UniProtKB/TrEMBL annotation, chain A:
A Pfam family the protein falls into: Proteasome_A_N
Record region (Disordered): 241-285
Protein name, UniProt field: Proteasome subunit alpha type
Keywords from the UniProt entry: Cytoplasm, Nucleus, Proteasome
Coiled-coil intervals: none
Record note on quaternary structure: The 20S proteasome core is composed of 28 subunits that are arranged in four stacked rings, resulting in a barrel-shaped structure. The two end rings are each formed by seven alpha subunits, and the two central rings are each formed by seven beta subunits.
Family: Belongs to the peptidase T1A family.
Every Proteasome alpha-type subunits domain range: 6-28
Localization terms from the record: Cytoplasm; Nucleus
Role played: The proteasome is a multicatalytic proteinase complex which is characterized by its ability to cleave peptides with Arg, Phe, Tyr, Leu, and Glu adjacent to the leaving group at neutral or slightly basic pH. The proteasome has an ATP-dependent proteolytic activity.
Record-linked CDD domains: proteasome_alpha_type_1
GO biological process, one term: ubiquitin-dependent protein catabolic process
TrEMBL record, chain B:
Role according to the record: Non-catalytic component of the proteasome, a multicatalytic proteinase complex which is characterized by its ability to cleave peptides with Arg, Phe, Tyr, Leu, and Glu adjacent to the leaving group at neutral or slightly basic pH. The proteasome has an ATP-dependent proteolytic activity.
Family in the record: Belongs to the peptidase T1B family.
GO biological process: proteolysis involved in protein catabolic process
Subunit structure: The 26S proteasome consists of a 20S proteasome core and two 19S regulatory subunits. The 20S proteasome core is composed of 28 subunits that are arranged in four stacked rings, resulting in a barrel-shaped structure. The two end rings are each formed by seven alpha subunits, and the two central rings are each formed by seven beta subunits. The catalytic chamber with the active sites is on the inside of the barrel.
GO CC entries: cytoplasm; nucleus; proteasome core complex, beta-subunit complex
CDD domains the UniProt entry points to: proteasome_beta_type_4 (cd03760)
Highest taxon of source: Eukaryota
Protein name: Proteasome subunit beta
Species for this entry: Drosophila kikkawai (Fruit fly)
The entry's keywords: Cytoplasm, Nucleus, Proteasome
Pfam families xrefs: Proteasome
Main location: cytoplasm
Automatic annotation (TrEMBL), chain C:
Keyword Cytoplasm: yes
Protein's recorded name: Proteasome subunit beta
Gene Ontology cellular-component terms listed: cytoplasm; nucleus; proteasome core complex
Subunit structure of this chain's protein: Component of the proteasome complex. The 26S proteasome consists of a 20S proteasome core and two 19S regulatory subunits. The 20S proteasome core is composed of 28 subunits that are arranged in four stacked rings, resulting in a barrel-shaped structure. The two end rings are each formed by seven alpha subunits, and the two central rings are each formed by seven beta subunits. The catalytic chamber with the active sites is on the inside of the barrel.
Biological process terms in GO annotation: proteolysis involved in protein catabolic process
Amino acid sequence: MFRNQYDSDVTVWSPQGRLHQVEYAMEAVKLGTATVGLKNRDTAVLVALCKPASELSASQRKIIPIDDHLGISIAGITADARVLSKYLRAECLNYKHSYDFTYPVTRLITNLGNKMQTTTQRYDRRPYGVGLLVAGYDEKGPHIYQVTPSATFFNCKANSIGSRSQSARTYLDRNLNSFLDCSKDDIICHGINAILGTLPTDEHQSRDTPSQYSITVAIVGKNQPFKILSEEENAKYLEWAKARGAPADPRRPGDDDDDDNRPSTSDDPDAGPRDPQVAVATEER
Amino acid sequence: MLNNYNGMAQPLWQNGPAPGEFYNFTGGQTVQKLPRELTTAGPYGTKRSTAAITTGSSVLGIRYDGGVMLAADTLVSYGSLARYQNIDRVFKINKNILLGGSGDFADIQSIMRNIDQKMIEDQCYDDNIEMKPKSLASWMTRVLYNRRSRMNPLYIDVVVGGVEQNGTPYLANVDLRGRAYEDFVVATGFARHLAVPLVRENKPKDKEFTAEEASQLIRKCMEVLYYRDTRNSSTYTVGVCTPNGCGVEGPYQVNENWTFAATIKGY
Amino acid sequence: MSSLGFEQFPDYQVPGVKHPDFSPYESNGGSIVAIAGDDFVVIAADTRLSSGYNIHSRNQSKLFKLSPKTVLGSTGCWADTLSLTGLMKVRMQSYEHTHLRTMTTDAVAQMLSITMYNRRFFPYYVSNILAGIDKDGKGVVYSYDPIGHCERATYRAGGSAGTLLQPVLDNQIGHKNINLPAGELPPLTKERAVAVASDTFISAAERDIYTGDSVLINVITKDGIEEKVLQLRQD
């Protein structure tokens, strides 16, 4: 029934100093389809893969606009994401109503983190089972934040979460240095190329028309309110991205060791506390 | 209100936890409580102020091509008594906002405590983001409008001036009802009648004032106000805000000349 | 004081200070005219913000762009106008988030009515006129009273000179009291609507001290909003 005797409750510590329930919540993020966030000097981009749950259903919305300057991309339990996005929207609206100004991204995420943390510290709550990539633009420029169910948040240069996101992270890692100074079109193409790497190989080859990839792209930046790109724009960028180079290195056999689909609870009890796997690259502040 | 998980549930006892809640839990539900003096009737019933008691008179603000200037004399009166003669009514809020306050001085001090607290909160975030003048003016309209809607207004009339993020000057007036507007000249009190027409008359068409013109006009207007407004004193302070920062200068002395008084006859 | 039974409590008074009863309202003047055509609507408002004999500002826009197809003109108590329009903007953004589409002019009109009626017993002291393109692509004007009564119209004047302007519109746009056969009545084009709106303001500025300085005219079509400015007398 239990994976071990210390995961009966969120508030129970393991002797190794771990909160197993919180770590299980982190696993929920890896069940969602992948999403990528990255930025250049004045644009932040979110790219999400939204595969329908079955042939019969429409795909879930993966990117949720919060305000004109901010949006989130989700991986994990969609219902939890809806609660969080409702909170974020309310905060942004209140802020705009009182101050006639957009909510500074860093402050909003700090407050979101504070809200999410309380659920990891009391027995009648459960952690949110959703990971977020936040793309926002404020007076300090574009931001990409990763927020995890453990309520930790990271200020990233680029990142990816969700199933098989490791290959997207590998792509981002390799191209990280070119992001800052590249054009808006280039950064979108990088995002698409990164996410194409997370597709299983067979799917990647069998699909030719852009709509079959079901990619959603959103951008926000200088003089650019948060916008989810249309089907036509997606097709255009997908075309360009493909022309620009092979998508993130196709997953080699034997690469499966990095697969983060694997539950993180290590079999080795002496592994010690495991920090959440972070970010390709995080900013200093 | 951040963590209002169980908004419908009433606490089990006064200040106690609601069902499903914990007493004084970290980050738990915080019941917003008004201070006792606002909710409890005193020995003579509940009273609200219906007029200003200790008052500051005019504030004058002028926007020019590189920033804004705010001026106010240093007198705070108690009725016709010139009660406090050396009080700054132009305040530096942060490095890009100035605020000039007139009306009930106690209310101004009260709102200033609130604003100062907000500036400290801004600094606590430690993210180099400071409030902008437009944001402060908007917040003031929300606060003042709320108070007037509860028929318990703050008897103040303020001028908010400063420089926006992109370097453009900003100047606005917010009154006790939450009425707000922006313009190149705004004033409160008697300056509205005496100084505003003077400044408007000198405005070049399709062009902003220069810093030199603005300071000349301030000097002239403070002089006129001193001569004609009985609730004015001859000393005044001037706040200047430019993209490079802001500060309050002075006190300056009005260039008074009463030699003509001897020539006035027939009274 | 004696009515409360506190005779021993002296009624202190600060010398020289008047004790007026606080009024939460203030009239800040301003007029609005809106004229709807088949596929356009024109809405105009002056830019004077005043109270009593003071002119606070000569260039305060009273037109609020709520969506690419809807503009609200609001005058009266300026503090109430600011509060009401702020609330409308918040509610419209929430609508956009929950329903994934921009509010239609008709929906905005209904919401404005309800928002105003919410304050039935402490009303927003404002005269609102809402102009926009409706869901069929036709120009439409809605007018309101301060407690939220809402009426759909094709032309309407409101604000401090509303009573002066409405009869002019009745004649020029509604063709009331005109002895001309139907065929000879001038058709309502965009140009004519702008011209009539401009003329009414020029006339109003002559008679109403709360209307003047300049007029902002918004011409709304399905392609967007075109803005024009007209100078009025400044006294």
